[in-house]
């Protein structure tokens, strides 16, 4: 997949120039670049097209598989205390002082998704299970939201960037916002099925053959 990035508190510069982060950052870029339109289509058709209107679950699964190949830890709890071992206090992925959140959920969760890498990086009186230094948020751009069948209320790359300004004081650690771009060869057209549920059908762009 193609993607764009936005840097907060020199996050991108740190990832590209600091030797403790450079290889891990390259793994993330490689993992995303490895995901092709064909892979998304195949998985979406095989597992999700009957139950989901968007490409979110297919893309999410492919990102997880790609990062697992680089030995990233998934669903890592931030704290050791059992009281905080639940989804709210869990990172999607972590490795070598970098945390990653894959954020295709409602825009109301943007502030919390941004704060989780900060909590994982800052000192805390609750004993930590994970200690990171930089956070990465992988999100959908507006164009992927619109062409991938996503709900209009999801937190997009553009909305994450907007939140960085009022939350600047709270977001004390370097962050990088990654925005996934739309597939080049196809898009999702939403419709209502016989049960009145919204589903998505695959449509190809007119120039799709020349792009494959």
Automatic annotation (TrEMBL):
The keyword Zinc does not apply. Keywords: Endonuclease, Hydrolase, Nuclease. GO terms for biological process: DNA restriction-modification system. GO terms for molecular function: DNA binding; magnesium ion binding; type II site-specific deoxyribonuclease activity. Pfam families: Endonuc-BglII. It comes from the Bacteria. This is Restriction endonuclease BglII family protein. It comes from Bacillus clarus. The lineage of its organism: Bacteria, Bacillati, Bacillota, Bacilli, Bacillales.
